[in-house]
Design a protein that fits this description.
Layout lengths: L8 H24 L9 H20 L4 H4 L3 E6 L5 E5 L4 H11 L1 H18 L1 H32 L1
Antiparallel strand pairs: 1-2
């Protein structure tokens, strides 16, 4: 497998294998300990979805988390308020693959969603607290955007 115009395929394969191995190992470990739930409540899934959305966006777009992305990306332009749009520095190889993962909220959300759901299964109470903070933060962001749109509409 080699790199192509579609990206660093070898590293993509390694990322997919890593994700699959971690998820499989976690599932087997939970099952062996008798902690694999029959079902996860809808309320927890909704909370995890909201939290994962915010977390993936925070990691991939926030100015403050630029330090995590800096080795792999460079700023292209300002994005939404408090956010940056970035492009991947490397043209191929592992740095490109990691840059693409760290600059794409859609790509990273599979990983953050998995972390949120596993956290809810392993340690529900602290995970609900963290997920609630992220979800409320996301709702607050939307209120900021709405306020900005309303303010602009009044000025126009």
């Amino acid at each position: 497998m080699t790199d192509s115009d579609d990206g660093p395929l070898t590293t993509y394969a390694a990322l997919i294998a890593t994700y699959g191995a971690v998820l499989s190992a976690a599932t087997v470990a939970l099952a062996r300990r008798g902690k694999l739930p029959d079902r996860i409540p809808w309320s927890d899934l909704a909370l995890a979805a909201a939290a994962s959305n915010v977390l993936s966006r925070r990691i991939t777009k926030d100015k403050i988390t630029r330090v995590v992305r800096a080795p792999f990306t460079e700023v292209e332009e300002a994005g939404a308020p408090g956010e940056l749009n970035e492009v991947v520095k490397a043209e191929s190889g592992p740095k490109r693959a990691l840059g693409e993962l760290l600059a794409c909220p859609f790509c990273l959300s599979q990983w953050t969603s998995t972390a949120m759901v596993l956290a809810l299964v392993v340690a529900p109470k602290p995970s609900r607290l963290v997920a609630s903070v992220l979800a409320v933060s996301g709702a607050s962001d939307q209120l900021h955007y709405l306020r900005g749109m309303l303010h602009k509409a009044v000025e126009d």
